[in-house]
Amino acid sequence: MSTFNEEICVPIRSDADIVVARQKGRALAVQLGFSGSDPTVIAAAISEVARNIVNHAKQGEIVLTGVHESSRLGIQVVARDEGPGIANIEQAMQYGYSSGKGMGVGLPGAKWLMDAFDIKSQIGKGTRVTMQKWVR
Ligand SMILES: Nc1ncnc2c1ncn2[C@@H]1O[C@H](COP(=O)(O)OP(=O)(O)O)[C@@H](O)[C@H]1O
Ligand SMILES: [Mg+2]
């Protein structure tokens, strides 16, 4: 799998930044050929991982890129931060689990909305969520 075009990098520290990341993700999705509800679905997944940066890590960034693998084309969303990290990823991925006052559906929801989902986290170092969705 390789990336193409330039990266779109959105710094995330506030609700307004989440809106920007959503909008840029939706625009890139349309540009890449996603149609129907897909751009909205992708924007929703971006929203969840960006919100987690604000709520759980204070600041970080969303990096959006086009990706291709063999003959298929897609979008890659990376959410990364240098926040506190996640002690138990299996627990964090459980539907309804929140360490705070959240609904606990952000991570499992984002995974469900995208085609591929990977989360890496180290305590005290930060968290990186990498997701892809392919144009159908
Ligand atoms: N970027 C992050 N940094 C640290 N912890 C995180 C991050 N993203 C998610 N988490 C942890 O994973 C849990 C589950 O995330 P999520 O499903 O989005 O639920 P919510 O955000 O509603 O709590 C959070 O409660 C939090 O403990
Ligand atoms: Mg969340």
Write a structural description.
The chain has 136 residues and is α+β, with helices and mostly antiparallel strands. The protein has one domain: Heat Shock Protein 90, CATH 3.30.565.10. The protein has a 5-stranded antiparallel beta sheet with strand order 1-2-3-5-4, covered by helices on one side. A hairpin with a 2-residue loop joins β2 and β3. α1 packs antiparallel against α2. The protein is globular and about 40 Å long. 32% of the residues are buried. The model has no long low-confidence stretch (mean pLDDT 97).
Topology, pairings included?
Elements: E1 2-12, H1 15-32, H2 38-57, E2 60-69, E3 72-81, H3 89-92, H4 106-113, E4 116-122, E5 126-134
Antiparallel strand pairs: 1-2, 2-3, 3-5, 4-5
The chain binds adenosine-5'-diphosphate and magnesium ion (MG).
The site of adenosine-5'-diphosphate has 22 residues, from helix 2 and helix 4.
Give, in spatial order, the strands making up the sheet with the most strands: 1-2-3-5-4
What is the total tally of β strands? 5
Helix/strand structural class: alpha+beta
The value of Rg in angstroms is: 14 Å
CATH architecture: 2-Layer Sandwich
Number of helices: 4
According to CATH, the fold-level topology is Heat Shock Protein 90
Distance from first to last alpha carbon: 17 Å
Please identify which CATH superfamily we are dealing with. Histidine kinase-like ATPase, C-terminal domain
Order of helices and strands: EHHEEHHEE
Shape: globular
Keywords:
alpha+beta; single chain; 4 helices; binds adenosine-5'-diphosphate; 136 residues; Heat Shock Protein 90; binds magnesium ion; five-stranded antiparallel beta sheet
